[in-house]
Every structure is written in C-alpha cells, then in structure tokens.
Amino acid sequence: MQCNDDTMSTSKFKTIYVFCGSNLGKKKSYQDYAIDLGKEQVMTNINLVYGGGNIGLIGLISQNVFDGGRHVLGIIPKALMDKDITSLTIGEVKSVIDMHQRKTEMSSNSDAFIAMPGYGYGTLEELFEVITWAQLGIHNKPVGLLNIDGYYNSLLSFIDQAVEEGFINPSARHIIVYASNAKELIEKLEDYYPYH
After folding, report:
1. Over the chain, what HEC string results?
2. Does the record's keyword annotation contain Hydrolase (predicted)?
C-alpha cells in the first residue's frame, strides 16, 4: 500500500463513485487496499458516492472517508432498502426509484469512477454501463480499476482480445484506467483524456 500521510493535497476531482462489494473477500490485501483508497480520498479531499451500506469492502472505504471528514453519499434503490441487504448506510442517504435512476444519480454526482475487487453481476453491469457511456460520449469521466493482486487481469485480457478481434475500437480500450494502488490510480485518473 502507498498511502502517504505526510501532506494533504487537493485532487481535481470533487467526488468519486466507488463500485465495491458487500463482502470482504478471502485476501486481507483487499481489506487493506480498501482502507488505503478511503484514506487516499481523504488526503486528496475527494468525497465519496457509493451504493450504500456499511458491510464488506465498501463499508471499510465509506467509514474511512466519513471518519476523515469528507462527504459520503449512498445512493440506494428503494427495493434494496426494503430488503435490508445494505445494512446501515454511512453518511447521507439518497433513495431512488430503481437501478436506472441510481446510475443516472451516481453519474451526475461524481467526477470519476473506481471499481474495487469484489462485486457481483449487478455491479459489473453498472461498471460496463459507465464505460459504454464514455465510449458514446455521454460523459467524459474516467473509469478506473483498482487492480489489487492482479484481480482484474483476466478482465483486461478479455477486453484486449475483443480489441484484437475487432469488436472494440483500440482507442476505446483507453477508457479503462488501472493501477495496483489507490495513489497511482487516482493520479492516472487525473491524467485521463477522453479518447473521442
């Protein structure tokens, strides 16, 4: 982990939406880097938008960002609140009608997106939707993968194969930014330039 505690700096991002699981995962490194991401957001004055809840990796990130004095916004569809699958939400809670409204709200309330390891089909769908929106020019916000211990290597290889086979434009491949630690990833996201 490379969380630098020496000085606080200000990122060009006001808020980042973090996709992350409600499980901790089998490796302690996932938990360590989740905490590191939260601390890095605090140190660079970045607020958090997330899917709500206080369990799993997202609970670690949201608690660290909240404890560090940054604004935390959880956007939760009413159907998920009723099932109590998110547990308590840290910070401000915004209830929305459905997943479509959630995606619209998360996009309009954030300057960049980061996907941590540890999510299911729903979050994969959300991740690929924001990538697709970038490809179509609906937004110009960077999308980053925190590639802890090579977690995303298979996904990145699959995308590279789709480029090689002619199904993804090579310039669109650059929509996805990735790094193995939070500090480097945020720096790369800040340097991102829309491909289109």
Report:
1. CCCCCCCCCCCCCCEEEEECCCCCCCCHHHHHHHHHHHHHHHHCCCEEEECCCCCHHHHHHHHHHHHCCCCEEEEEEHHHHHHCCCCCCCCEEEEECCHHHHHHHHHHCCCEEEECCCCCHHHHHHHHHHHHHHHHCCCCCCEEEECHHHCCHHHHHHHHHHHHCCCCCHHHHHHEEEECCHHHHHHHHHHCCCCC
2. yes
Q: What does the pLDDT look like over 105-143, one tens digit per residue?
A: 888 889 999 999 876 777 788 899 999 999 999 999 999
Give the C-alpha separation, 40 to 33, whole Å.
10
Please state at what angle helix 99-108 crosses helix 121-136, rounded to 10 degrees: 50
pLDDT in tens, 32-69: 999 999 999 999 999 999 887 777 888 899 999 999 99
Which pair of structure tokens corresponds to residue 107? 């996009």
Q: What CATH class has 22-191?
A: alpha beta
Tokens (6 digits) for 74:
């959880």
CA distance 142 to 131: 9
Distance CA 22, CA 72 (A): 17
